[in-house]
């Protein structure tokens, strides 16, 4: 219910900027395993090599290891009794007007979808899911690996002019 309300209330102007003119990029993902962590780091490196300022936020599920503690993160324990997710890290992330915001999960997470709904990002990019089209300006159909999803997202967005 909070997510639906956030979608309706958020009046951020959505548009895709040419990739070469984009300066800030957000990445949000759920921790799964060491390989996904390495793939995300490689994706970040690729974006930084292109001159993008990258900010990362990860969702850390219970009983999962936070590899390196390299990124800001939030957990289910940050969800209040009233269903609000408000931490300094999440608040800062959703208020940042990223040129592109990449959601790197193959399976949707309701907490992350809430952040996407509240985000001030101009162009939100995620895996194709017909039921979640209101959360994205660009959806990528990719049924392979996490690394494949990241590569496909990069290939499509880097071609935007």
Please describe what this structure looks like.
The protein has 5 helices and 6 strands. Helix 2 packs parallel to helix 5. The N and C termini lie far apart (36 Å). It has one domain (42-158). Strands 3-2-1-4-5-6 form a 6-stranded parallel sheet, with helices on both faces. 34% of the residues lie in helices and 17% in strands. It has helices spanning 2-9, 34-49, 88-95, 110-118, 146-158; strands spanning 24-30, 53-59, 72-74, 100-103, 124-127, 138-140. The chain has 161 residues and is α/β, with parallel strands linked by helices.
Listing every helix as H and every strand as E from the N terminus to the C terminus, the arrangement reads: HEHEEHEHEEH
Spatial strand order of the main sheet: 3-2-1-4-5-6
Overall mean pLDDT score?
94
- In total, how many beta strands? 6
Given the helix and strand composition, which structural class is it? alpha/beta
């Amino acid at each position: 219910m909070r997510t639906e309300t956030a979608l309706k209330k958020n009046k951020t102007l959505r548009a895709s900027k040419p990739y070469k003119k984009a300066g800030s990029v957000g990445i949000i993902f759920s921790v799964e395993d060491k390989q996904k962590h390495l793939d995300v780091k490689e994706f970040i490196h690729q974006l930084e090599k292109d001159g993008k300022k990258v900010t990362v936020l990860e969702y850390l599920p219970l009983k999962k290891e936070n590899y390196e503690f390299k990124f800001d993160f939030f957990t289910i324990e940050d969800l209040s009794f009233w269903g609000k997710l408000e931490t300094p890290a999440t608040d800062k992330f959703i208020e940042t007007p990223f040129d592109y915001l990449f959601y790197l999960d193959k399976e949707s997470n309701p907490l992350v979808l809430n952040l996407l709904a509240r985000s001030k990002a101009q162009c939100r990019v995620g895996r194709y899911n017909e039921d979640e089209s209101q959360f994205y300006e660009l959806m990528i159909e990719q049924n392979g690996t996490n690394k494949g999803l990241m590569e496909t997202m990069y290939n499509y967005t880097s071609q935007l002019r």
